[in-house]
Amino acid sequence: MTSSETPSALEAPERRAILAHRTVWRWHFYAGLFCIPFVLILSLTGAAYLFKPQVESWLDRPYDQLVVEGGPWSAQAQVDAALAAAPEGARLRFYEVRSRPGEAARITLSTPEGPLIAFVHPETNVVLSFQREADRPMEVIKTIHGELLMGERGSLLVELAAGWAVVMILTGLVLWFPRGGRGPGGVLWPRRGLGGRLAWRDLHAVTGFWVSGLALFLLLTGLPWTTVWNDAFKEVRRATGTLAASQEWSSGRKAEQVDEHAAHRDLAGSPAQIEGPATVSLDRMVASVRRMDLPPPVLIAPPARGEGWRSSPVWTVRSETANRPQRVVLTLDPATGQVTDAETFADKHPIDRAIGFGIAAHEGQLFGLANQLLGLVAAMGLITLSVSGVVMWRRRGPRGVLGAPERLSSLMAARTVGIVILALGIFMPVLGVSLILVALAEFLVLRRIPRVRNWLGLDTVR
Question: Dmax over Cα atoms in the chain, in whole Å?
Fold first, then answer.
């Protein structure tokens, strides 16, 4: 816009369009400036985590391709060997039912420091390795993705970044929308022959259009893992009577640690130490479960001695397949080993089923390799958007200031955009609180310091 094309000099419709466009652009600029570093981290870690099954299969090759000539030791003997070699105080948490003779037994032990996985040779009954679950590479990537290795504070930062990323994408779509009879070039595909900032602009706009739907899906399906949103969601479900006794996803590493400590307190040391009525052997349990042909991995958990819902006098069998709609939870009578109850995905509340579908798709496990590749496209698209956005900003921004778009006086545009952002802030409370804090900081501090006001671009141009 040239000096002769100031908003006040233009016809009313064109002036309103420019004012609205500039207002949306400012929101897009500030949202992107804040969340781009987080988007890059989440995209890189998320892309890696999509391929968790393949990566862990490759990492576990030394324990899954053993040369076995004789028959395996009993499941009970394998558990006893793992407990004997484990740190003092370890207790059986899960016994994983393996499908092939050359695979080491996997026994998850509960310890005060967290779950410990024991790999036991099926033929020699020797413990090949102990691995802290939290130290496994994909678990480390998951922790970075969910809380940036900063605990609960990191989880709140991720939740905040997700909210501003939604604002960035929605405002970006408004900016992308073609105006003035533009052709598909620069809208659906980059135009040829452009150089410099225009080429980056086309790359940014076109990529944003094609990945925006996938990116919004990933951001929204990631909300159940967050702290504040998930807690608020549970309160709403509790008030409406739709809250399940327990949920299959955690709301952060802190919540997982609380459950792990409670589980450690409530577990017996081994199946042989479980008190109560006569219990069939672990080996009979394993043989019975093996015949069920459940989707792997299949975990057998002993009875727990806790209070309330943590107390379980029965054995529990869980199919922990990454494709959540295929998961099954069975309870077995400790005296007979017979199935007394079964819960499938279809038995869950519709809300839990919807979230289960979303989480499975988010993790790239709902429909196989195609799902993983689709998630990878979304991650690479977000990285492209972030890099191209930074390049355009640095090429456009004048020296000595942040380079934010000028604030133009438009009460109607500000109200319209403000209402949409406010609605997002109500849906995502952490975003809403940040909006209030930013507004207070701008009104009480930033606008009152001329140099800061000028550097941030808070002056209004009429």
Answer: 91
Task: Give the phi and the psi of residue 341 in degrees, each rounded to 5.
Answer: -160, 150
Tens place of pLDDT per residue across the chain (462 aa): 444 445 555 455 666 666 677 788 889 999 999 999 999 999 999 999 999 999 999 999 999 999 988 889 999 999 999 999 999 989 999 999 998 889 999 999 999 889 999 999 999 999 999 999 999 999 999 999 999 999 899 999 999 999 999 999 999 998 888 776 667 877 788 888 787 888 999 999 999 999 999 999 999 999 999 999 999 999 999 999 888 777 777 766 666 655 565 555 556 565 655 555 556 788 888 988 998 989 999 999 988 765 443 445 788 999 999 999 999 999 988 888 889 999 999 999 999 999 999 999 999 999 999 999 999 999 999 999 999 999 999 887 777 788 888 776 666 666 777 888 889 999 999 999 999 999 899 889 988 898 888 888 887 665
Query: Would you say 234 and 243 are in contact if contact means Cβ atoms under 8 Å apart?
Result: yes
- Written as one letter, the residue type at 272 is A
Q: What is the DSSP letter of 128?
A: E
The secondary element (H helix, E strand) that includes residue 460 is strand 460-461
* DSSP category for residue 404: P
Q: Which two structure tokens, joined as six digits, stand for 123?
A: 């033929």
Overall pTM > 0.85: yes
